[in-house]
Every structure is written in structure tokens, then in C-alpha cells.
Design a protein that fits this description.
This protein has 13 helices and 13 strands. With about 475 residues, it is of the alpha/beta class.
Length: about 475
């Protein structure tokens, strides 16, 4: 018991280790699936104590072990501080589309030089709902076909998303303050390499496939790029109002060329409505309950841009190397002019061991802060000189006419089935016989993902290549 209460001046602190252990236990308990899903906000806020955990853990393990994880600490702090700097910018929100199935599409302005790949995600914060909460959402836009706009889709399933839907669908508002981090995503669109492509979704799991189909639409114009010959989208919904999500396959500012391109991708859509036996209204008539809200640009609004601008990898290397050099310089000055004289006079144990660890942590944070801040604000100043914000002012009448033409393209490729779930085994086995290289991408409930995985791993499915996505916490 005495050792548990000991905070040694010459060696490791047991009390710090105990505090770190208690914090880790609390975070672990709130990470249990049932607790995490039913009390997400508790899970979220408790995990913000990870900084305290790292602080006391490093004090407990001491300088020697701290040096072993120093590269990881540097990379984590640089990444986290860059994300913090990016999140301080108020982003220009162009428009929001409210679908009758409690789905929101947010359309942001972005710099033309910002590149991202399909299935990327964007972290979003709305201060009017919660200052601390950041939620990840799938990016549905395409960086090539929509160079000045970035879109995400939000399905209202939790407290935060319902508050956002209520705020947008209530009294008219001219603007909405939004901050973002990202986008983050895979390095390359790997799904383009397959001969045939089968996309299977359940509910809001269709959102990553929107960006994939938009990418295929763009790549259709590139004769040198191999793309799947046939694309089949199998989507399962609970209610017929969810069919309005298929309209998001075409962007807010879709034009006639986009419509013709999507018809050339050999896209076939099989939609299944599991809880209704007949269609309430035709798919082409769902526009009557679809609402588009246009926001006025505010003086402080900025488009989404990469934190370090073009050549971000080069500038990231500059930050990492310069911050580490600064750390070594600070540490060398401290040892030579502060620690060494005291240990020379009083022996190796004259200087408090915990103080050494605290000095190391302080210099790591200070060097990262100085190097990252200098590069970020210098690059931001340079980018502001070269880039100008492009705000799209579209006439509502013209947009409605374009969307009505585009909707016909989606309707023509869609077959709707009522009262039952898709026979995934039959669908996949039919595609397995048609081609020697079939990519299968599934995103939806756990039961659906497991069923598809079981089919693709069977001996008969020699030509099926599975990739799974999950939004479950």
C-alpha cells in the first residue's frame, strides 16, 4: 500500500500509473458496444480524457520509455494540431437538400485544387448544436466532376442529426455556421480494377456508393482508364420514401452531360422495399417533398481547402523535421544550462525525475506548436493570394429543369420490388457465372454484411472479390 501511494523524486511515479490505469478502465467500459450505442455522448465525452491518460502514462513510464514512443507522439501531435487549425475556419455552406426520408445533403464550397477519392469521409461540427461534437459523414461528391463543391449525406438516426434536421426544416435561415476536418479517404479508387461491380447496400449504406457511381460516370470519359463493364446497385430500404436517396446519385448542379454519362455506365439499380407491399408514389414524383435551401454567403466564410495547400506531403515533411530539430535544440539547452549544473553539484539524483519528463513533454508540444503554426499560417497566406473563393449562384428555375431531366436517367435504370428482401445468393451467383472478375462491395447492417461475406467465401464463388464497409460504432 505504501508503494502504491509513492511519488518518487528519483524514479518512476506509481501514483501517476494508477491514475492512468483508472482512466483507461473508464474509457474501456464506455467502449462496450451496448454502452457506446445507447449512450454515445457519454462514450464521446469520456474519451476526451485520453489526453490526461497519455499525460499520466508518460509520467509513470519515465523519460526512457517516452523516447521509445517519441516518433508516434510527434506524428500524433502534428496531425491533431493541423486538424485543430483547419477546424477553426468557418466553411461556406452553399445549399442543403432535405429528403422526405429524414436525410440531409449538405453542399459546401471548396477550392478547385482540393483532391479526394470516393468513399472519403468528412468530420463536421455545427456549433449551434454542439461545440465539442464532431461527426464523420461520407462524401458523396466527386472531385473531378464537381471541382468547386463538396457534398455529404446525413441520415437522421441520433440526437445530433435530428436537431440539425429540425433546425433546417423549421423557420427559414439565411446561414449556418459549420466547421469541418478533412476529407480523409483511401489513396486510390480500387473498385475500378474489376471487370464487373456489384454494390450492395442497406438503408443509409448507399451513401458511399453515390461517390463510387459518380466516379464511374467521370471515368467513362477517360478512354485510357479501365472501368467495370457492368455495374449493379442492389439497395434495400424499409419504406418507399427512402427511394428519394437515389436522386442523390446525381449532384445538386447536375447537367445534361452528367445525365448522359450516367446512362453510359451500364448501371442497373435493383431497389427493394421490405416493409411495404405497394408503391405509395412513383419515384419521379418524390420531388414534391424534396426541399432545397440556399444559403447566403457570409464575409467570414471560406471554402474547404487542404490545411497545407498543394504539395502538402512536402510541407508535412518540413514540419516533422523542423519540429524535431527544435526539440533537440530546446532539450540540449535545458540539459547544458539547467539540469547538468545541478546534477554536477548534487549527484545524478539531484534533479527530480518527474520534472525531466515534464520538460520533455513541454518541449515536444512547444516545438510542434511553433513549427506547425509557422508553416500553416505561411501557406495559408500564400494560398489566399493565389486562390479566390468561387460561389455558385444558380437560378432555382434552371436547376429544377436540369434535375427533372436527370431524374429520368435514374428512373430508367431502376427496378423496384416490394414486400421482400433481395435474394443476395441468387444475385451474386448469377454475376459469378457471367464474369471471371466481379468486385462485391457491401455497406449496411451487420447481418447483411455477414451474409454477403458467407456467400463470397463459399467454394462456388470463385470469381467474387468482397470488400465491406461499416458505419457502426
Amino acid at each position: 500500500m505504501m508503494q502504491m501511494k509513492e511519488w518518487s523524486k528519483t524514479y518512476l511515479s506509481n501514483v501517476a500509473g494508477e491514475i492512468a490505469f483508472v482512466l483507461a478502465i473508464i474509457m474501456w467500459v464506455t467502449s462496450i458496444r451496448r454502452v457506446r450505442q445507447k449512450m454515445f455522448e457519454i462514450f464521446f465525452y469520456v474519451h476526451q480524457t485520453y489526453l490526461l491518460y497519455v499525460f499520466f502514462y508518460i509520467i509513470h513510464v519515465g523519460v526512457a520509455y517516452f523516447c521509445l514512443i517519441l516518433p508516434g507522439i510527434f506524428l500524433f501531435l502534428i496531425d491533431r494540431y493541423l486538424r485543430f487549425l483547419q477546424s477553426q475556419t468557418r466553411i461556406r455552406l452553399i445549399a442543403a437538400r432535405l429528403l422526405p426520408c429524414n436525410v440531409i445533403e449538405l453542399n459546401f464550397s471548396k477550392l478547385a485544387g482540393l483532391e479526394y477519392t470516393p468513399t472519403s469521409i468528412l468530420f463536421v461540427n455545427v456549433p449551434s448544436i454542439s461545440t465539442l461534437q464532431w461527426h464523420p459523414f461520407t462524401v458523396t461528391s466527386n472531385a473531378n466532376t464537381e471541382p468547386d463543391m463538396l457534398s455529404i449525406v446525413i441520415k437522421c438516426e441520433g440526437t445530433w442529426s435530428h436537431k440539425l434536421y429540425k433546425q433546417l426544416s423549421g423557420s427559414p435561415i439565411d446561414s449556418l455556421q459549420v466547421s469541418v476536418e478533412g476529407p480523409y479517404g483511401p489513396a486510390a479508387p480500387h473498385f475500378l480494377s474489376y471487370e464487373n461491380l456489384v454494390l450492395i447496400s442497406g438503408g443509409s449504406g448507399i451513401t458511399p456508393f453515390i461517390s463510387i457511381i459518380r466516379e464511374l460516370t467521370f471515368q467513362q470519359l477517360n478512354d485510357n482508364r479501365k472501368i467495370p463493364t457492368n455495374v449493379l446497385l442492389v439497395c434495400a430500404f424499409k419504406h418507399s420514401t427512402d427511394l428519394s436517396m437515389l436522386k442523390l446519385l446525381l449532384p445538386l448542379t447536375s447537367n445534361t452531360s452528367t445525365t448522359s454519362n450516367i446512362s453510359q455506365t451500364n448501371l442497373k439499380i435493383q431497389a427493394y422495399i421490405t416493409r411495404e407491399t405497394e408503391q405509395q408514389q412513383p419515384l419521379e414524383n418524390t420531388d414534391s417533398s424534396l426541399r432545397t435551401i440556399w444559403f447566403k454567403p457570409m464575409p467570414n466564410d471560406m471554402p474547404i481547402s487542404a490545411p497545407l495547400g498543394p504539395d502538402s506531403w512536402l510541407w508535412l515533411c518540413v514540419i516533422i523535421s523542423s519540429s524535431f530539430v527544435l526539440f533537440l535544440i530546446f532539450l540540449g539547452i535545458l540539459i547544458r544550462y539547467h539540469i547538468y549544473p545541478k546534477e554536477l553539484a548534487g549527484g545524478p539524483s539531484a534533479y527530480n525525475y518527474t520534472y525531466k519528463t515534464l520538460w520533455d513533454m513541454f518541449f515536444v508540444c512547444a516545438s510542434v506548436f511553433l513549427a506547425t503554426s509557422f508553416v500553416f499560417f505561411w501557406r495559408k497566406k500564400e494560398n489566399d493570394k493565389k486562390e479566390t473563393t468561387k460561389v455558385q449562384n444558380l437560378e432555382l428555375g434552371e436547376t429544377g429543369e436540369i434535375e427533372s431531366c436527370a431524374d429520368l436517367s435514374v428512373v430508367d435504370t431502376t427496378s423496384i420490388h416490394f414486400g421482400h428482401r433481395p435474394d443476395l445468393k441468387k444475385i451474386l451467383m448469377e454475376n459469378n457465372k457471367k464474369s471471371s472478375d466481379v468486385g462485391v462491395v457491401v455497406c449496411g447492417p451487420r447481418k447483411m454484411r455477414h451474409e454477403v461475406a458467407k456467400i463470397c467465401s463459399s467454394k462456388q464463388a470463385n470469381n467474387l472479390h468482397l470488400e465491406s464497409m461499416s458505419f457502426n460504432w
